[in-house]
Amino acid sequence: MLSTAAISAKRDSLSGLKENVIVGKNIPAGTGLRHFKDLVVESVNEYNVM
After folding, report:
1. 1, exposed or middle or buried, with CB in 10 Å at 0-12, 13-18, 19+?
2. CA–CA–CA angle 8, 22, 35 (5° rounding)
3. How far is 45 from 49, CA to CA, in rounded Å?
């Protein structure tokens, strides 16, 4: 199935949870998804320096 999709240049929008977990992207779930989209988690010391 994967080779058939590749030959016909099919695209996947990765709109599901499993697909995004497999490729390491943020999952489209939760109430604050858009609010925390650009959040970068750092150490507390680096945050205080900012």
Report:
1. exposed
2. 110
3. 6
Length of the chain: 50
Rg, Å, the chain Cα set: 17
pTM over 0.70: no
Q: What is the largest CA-CA distance in the chain?
A: 52
Contact 28, 15 (CB under 8 A): yes
Structure tokens at 19: 């697909």
* Contact assessment for residue 14 and residue 20, using Cβ atoms and an 8 Å cutoff: yes
What does the pLDDT profile of the chain (50 residues) look like in tens digits? 678 878 888 887 777 888 888 888 877 777 656 676 677 777 878 767 76
